[in-house]
Amino acid sequence: MSQPQAASQARRRSMQAEQAYLTALYERLDAARALAAETLREAEARGGGGGYAGLLERQTVVDEQARIAQRLAAVEEGLCFGRIDHRDLPGTPGGPLYVGRIGLRDAEHEVMLVDWRAPAARPFYAATPQAPAGLVRRRHLHTRGRTVVGLDDEVFDLDGLDEEQRSGLAGEAALLAALRAGRTGRMHDIVSTIQGEQDRVIRSGLHGILVVQGGPGTGKTVAALHRAAYLLYTYRSVLERRGVLVVGPNATFLRYISQVLPSLGETDVVLTTVGGLFPGVRAEARDAPEAAVVKGSLRMAGLVAAAVRERQRVPRGGLRVEAQGMELTVDEQTCRDIRDLTRDLGIRHNAARPFFVREMLGALALDQQRRFEESVREAEEDAGLTGGAVPELEDPDAPLWTEEDTEVAVETLWGDPAVQRALNALWPHLAPERLVGELLSDPGLMSAAAREAAREPEEGAVAEHEWRILLRPAGSAWTVDDVPLLDEAAELLGEEAGKRSAEQRAAERRRRERERYARGVLEISGLFEGDREGAAAALAERQADEGPAPTTAERAEADRSWAYGHVIVDEAQELSEMAWRTVMRRIPTRSLTVVGDTAQTGSAAGASSWEQMLGGYAGGRLHEERLLVNYRTPAEIMDVAADVLKEVAPDQRPPESVREGGERPRAVRIAPGTWAERLPGLVGAELRAVGAAPDGADCADGADPGGRVAVIVPDDRHAEFAALLPEAASDASPAVLDSPVAVLTCTLAKGLEFDSVLIAEPDRILAGSPQGGRDLYVAVTRATRRMTVLHERPLPGMLSGLARGD
Ligand SMILES: Nc1ncnc2c1ncn2[C@@H]1O[C@H](COP(=O)(O)OP(=O)(O)OP(=O)(O)O)[C@@H](O)[C@H]1O
Description:
- This protein is α/β, with parallel strands linked by helices.
- Among the domains are: 3-182, no CATH class; 313-385 and 401-426, no CATH class; 497-543, no CATH class; 635-802, P-loop containing nucleotide triphosphate hydrolases (Rossmann fold).
- Helix content is 47%, strand content 14%.
- It is built from 32 helices and 22 strands.
- It is globular and about 135 Å long.
- The chain starts with a helix and ends with a strand.
């Protein structure tokens, strides 16, 4: 037999052996699913017998089994994707280790499959030829459904393989195959091809702020999502109770990444934007750059605080109010003293209000007492003059006015609408929406707040020419840049002590009772070996009287004061100082993963340096990792991007492309007045060029994706270009992910990728904002295959390296 024949036979045998193993794994998966379904059915059938304790136990089992069933269902596709063979050394695991989406054991409890997040799987990702981590070989298994369709081997130590294994070695690198696969408009998990530098990010410890800085396409987003899954696996008892928050730049982007965590079996994660961080508000629109810069500045915290102080008024000349048939007064100094005393309590505005009201009512009651005593004295004098009796003095030893009289007077005064109106005007109950809405639309309040803020120099003053930019009509819709102001206001205002907190206290009491019960049940049933306290709390919460129990994610999202277990911020360079302040409130432990690229900052209020933006929060625990390899953009396009980067961020190195695309990006000149004629044809040609997955490669999820084309245009011509392509998706909705053609601004395209990208009028993009160069850098790094620049006016110098295509 010739050598090639022998090799191909050996490869066939390898495939057959792997197929047999994969089949056994799926049989095991099916058995686990059947067991979970059976346990679930049994638990549900058990009914509510056994009283409250029985009910709790049943619910625990039902919830747990439902969760297991959900995880088992999520791992059908690509259950096992890798295998590692260790060098035969004492102390290393004998035989091959298979790596997959979950861990599985056989009937004898022996490991059949290792979860990709487990420490034992680490060499699969971390081994390199220089540092093979004890491996002789890493094998990628390519599967379709339950069938092995290919193998990729990387050999670290040829001597460590026997003759049969050597001749059975299979070819092409798994990563390149994955990158060549057609895209579907949704991000996919990369468990089978995580690279070493990404693995370091994914498996970093839970604590402190981890910043992942990397150029476009280096896998920051996808690595951050895998990190979420890794952390949930490794620190499940902490994170399942507190939850994980992922903050992305907009709703389209969230939809783009939405499948990754569920495909990894993790669903209890809150995905939101900065505009969605304040419960009840879902802001999507952005302010104009000048307003965004002012609103994003930390000085706004001082301005909002000053606006609250402005709403704590001292009436000029004192308080006068018609009540109880007389005019009661409290002099100005007393009003000031009461206001200052209330402020000195150091509690939030609404929570302090009852104290203020009570003190003011006391002062009014004092005036009432004074008037009463005066009237008695006058009556006395009159009686002395006329010799008649003063009824109040029937018992001359009794005090004229008792403490009880004061209590009654206070209550009666509070029942008087005129008094309520007067006191509400001095220290109103304020909702954050009302305070911020009034601040941004009332020049009187704004200028008074700015003056008041300037009295506290450490907060930094907002100058008149700045606050004037913020003014807008009352009732305007909330913007993303307003949300940190609302959060700031909520933080300062708090909730009024009273009915609501009584309710909260009662709920808290009920919860504690349930928790005590649950702890007992768990002790008896022995269901939880690990974090019993955590399990008891979770169980008690699930048992709340209010109908079906919400998930951690649902509860966290609805609660502004929720403290998450970990927070991931993507496209983090876009967040302003005020937005960071809002995010940091959600994570008092400062356990964060921050991913972004300061060379792509589009927001004028965004970051140019991580240390500057985050150093103050990190308490010395800011750790930066860099990703240097671009997995999205072919080298030919990245060369053009490098020219742009040289102009906009000369201190940064462009990431290195992992592959070449074979097609040079080009520039096409459009004659004036011919856009309507040319654009549809050019887009049609691109659609045809990317119509099928390249080289007959498969789409990542097996379906034919077709190709997707984006036309990236200057902000001020978005509507005009969208009108030229009526079939295209062009708004901020997630429809742009599913449409074959999308017309987008640079902001909307951020974080996304397309098979082919057409960039229209790059000089207008450059001139469009102070960050125009960075916007253009975003535009030229979106393509996975082809890029064309369309221009009517001369090309900007930084694009002069493009080939002419017309
Ligand atoms: N190890 C990998 N294996 C396969 N594909 C990968 C890998 N790493 C990244 N990719 C792919 O590369 C593309 C870019 O990744 P991602 O969007 O996470 O990059 P990014 O750094 O966030 O980019 P940007 O800064 O432009 O938002 C995605 O399609 C992603 O799936």
